[in-house]
């Protein structure tokens, strides 16, 4: 009998996920439209929609649709009961973003610090403090929290251990475990993932290229990483380390990288490497955001030295993008993080390398574009990751009405 | 009503696939074991197994199992009614392999030629002739053909068009369409895929590392390519061109490649490049297999010049494997094709580069091994691809008994 229940539950969860996903993409729509669009039969759709309404994930609108026959009540996503929290920690600081379950933004906070020199214990404490405030804000809005996901620039294994995050000075930090403890073992899931993987998820769910099943987001911050969506799914790999392009060797005789090797992509085309070449006179601990903004201003003013360096960096970046295009055949390579703001000058140089260096004609259909999310991609992807439990059909329990 | 049918059919197809897959991995086993192992309820399993027996894909054995209570009849796969054909065309010649639906090998043929200079029309005709013979042999054994899949060393798009196969001298050849016509528009599916993708599928289904969800097969023939299994699935990418590592730039000042670029992996570490460096005196159109065998003999005899070249090639190959490991985090990188026979000398050099050049500690858990399938991997993977329609639940219609 337990087998029978498991079987039934799995099919129902799959059907719930299909119906909710269809509604997310086609809201507002009728029960009949869900049935027609998903292949589920009308009785199943009626039952599933009843469940979703009971859980306050879907609501009926006053609108009706009247093609032929009886007018049909239209359904929309209901964001009044639940929200998901996404966070990022990077050399730039901390970010927290929350969306309700209908995709409406509830909060978007950014805090500077703690710096890499603060040590992991202080960083975890600062993350937990910001998470608690976000959780309190969600609760104050009358919603329950579906989950908290944190993006980290480094190698994160499947247990949420940060194996290596050079830009933060972390190694073998049990971040997920520490955060769960700091948040008092909450009932909702707490997840830790690689920043670029989450950024790619944000682009895949909410970005202008969301229709594509094959896209790669390049994060351009202290480090350089890639998040990969291939054949419609985020790739993870054996230990969860997919997309570590920052240490592809671009120039065997190149400068020393933070990892101890020479000529890694990060060392020749990372944001600190660009800044170091252009304004060596300034102090290295000046706010990197302010320095990137200054770079954009100089390039916009037509300063030749700046534009030349950006073109050269684009060429080096393009050599790595060729590797990605030959190996993964993406439709879009999206320049994210600080690269996004520099896209106007980087993209043409990357594209030129890509066409020259990819075996497939016209780079296998690959286009290079700048992210529209910039520095928020990771936190938005973290929200999406927390919302994923809904779309995989694992609904919250019904609360007393 | 059509929606209801579609819905029901999809669930049943998924359940059939799950039951058949479980039986493939756990044969012989009882209906109760299938239910316990898959989470399907016993009534569903009984109905599905009935279907599979009617279609002669499963049969009951005389054996019974008697833990507690009534003895249970054991089931095994039945290979008596269907077979799948896998083929390969390469610079080495043509291969055809057929397995019955229980995984038993029915035939394994190799033909030399047609060479690249024969032109695509002759090659298609030779492929069709060999396919017709394999189909006739399957029919003579009393079985129906589930499908024919052909592996090609080159870029193959999702419609079975060979966009580029430099080693065969092909460009924009509509191979699938041409083969379907040459075989008289058969009722079974005819598919064309990239050789390395099929090789990876063979390793994933039948190889010694089949338990791994993250493996990469490197094909080492005229060209060098990679087939990628990531997170348990074969990757395809935007146009189907995943794994084209042969043209990663290894040495900017390297030799001219057939693609017109300089220093591509193929040009420095492909089998012809290895042979050219070691026995330049021999004619380039001598059988590459015989020349590789000679290379193995020389290395086994301890000839220093040969071992030095193989070590150097392993180092160059290792630089590309680093790229794969950083980007895809595989558990196994399998040296296939002619590289397999040279594995004893290549593997240590590849491993050294891999450890040095991968950001993740211990190369993210990646191991380098030699394929046990050698030159048969592509055709075996092609068989697996044709058998896949069974495991995806699309069963043949019931034949008159």
TrEMBL record, chains A, B:
Gene3D superfamilies the UniProt entry points to: 3.30.420.40, Winged helix-like DNA-binding domain superfamily/Winged helix DNA-binding domain
InterPro entries on file: ATPase_NBD, ROK, WH-like_DNA-bd_sf, WH_DNA-bd_sf
Coiled-coil residues: none
Domain of life: Bacteria
Family: Belongs to the ROK (NagC/XylR) family.
Protein name per the record: ROK family protein
Species assigned in the record: Kribbella koreensis
């Amino acid at each position: 009998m337990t087998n029978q229940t498991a079987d039934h539950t799995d099919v129902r969860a799959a059907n719930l996920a299909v119906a909710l996903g269809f509604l997310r993409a086609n809201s507002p729509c009728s029960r009949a439209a869900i049935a027609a669009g998903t292949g589920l039969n009308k009785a199943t759709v009626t039952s599933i929609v009843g469940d979703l309404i009971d859980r306050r994930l879907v609501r009926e609108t006053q609108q009706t649709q009247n093609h032929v026959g009886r007018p049909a009540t239209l359904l929309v996503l209901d964001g009044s009961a639940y929200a998901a929290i996404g966070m990022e920690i990077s050399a730039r600081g901390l970010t927290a973003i929350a969306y309700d379950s209908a995709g409406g933004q509830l909060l978007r906070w950014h805090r500077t610090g703690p710096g890499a020199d603060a040590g992991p214990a202080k960083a975890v404490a600062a993350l937990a403090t910001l998470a608690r405030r976000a959780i309190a804000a969600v609760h104050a809005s009358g919603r329950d929290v579906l989950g908290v996901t944190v993006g980290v620039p480094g190698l994160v294994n499947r247990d949420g251990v940060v194996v290596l995050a050079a830009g933060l000075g972390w190694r073998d930090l049990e971040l997920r475990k520490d955060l769960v403890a700091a948040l008092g073992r909450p009932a909702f899931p707490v997840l830790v993932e690689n920043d670029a993987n989450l950024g790619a998820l944000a682009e895949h769910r909410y970005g202008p290229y969301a229709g594509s099943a094959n896209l790669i987001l390049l994060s351009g911050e202290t480090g350089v990483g890639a998040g990969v969506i291939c054949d419609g799914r985020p790739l993870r790999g054996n230990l969860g380390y997919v997309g570590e392009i920052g240490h592809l060797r671009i120039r065997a005789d190149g400068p020393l990288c933070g990892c101890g090797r020479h000529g890694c992509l990060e060392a020749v085309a990372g944001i600190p490497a660009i800044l170091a070449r252009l304004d060596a006179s300034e102090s290295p601990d000046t706010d990197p955001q302010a320095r990137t903004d200054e770079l954009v201003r100089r390039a916009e003013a037509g300063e030749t030295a700046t534009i030349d360096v950006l073109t050269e960096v684009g060429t080096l970046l393009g050599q790595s993008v060729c590797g990605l295009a030959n190996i993964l055949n993406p439709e879009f390579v999206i320049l994210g993080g600080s690269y996004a703001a520099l896209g106007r000058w980087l993209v043409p140089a990357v594209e030129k390398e890509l066409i020259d260096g990819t075996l497939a004609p016209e780079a296998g259909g690959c286009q290079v574009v700048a992210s529209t999310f910039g520095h928020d991609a990771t936190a938005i992807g973290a929200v999406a990751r927390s919302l994923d439990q809904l779309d995989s059909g694992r609904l919250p329990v019904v609360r007393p009405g």
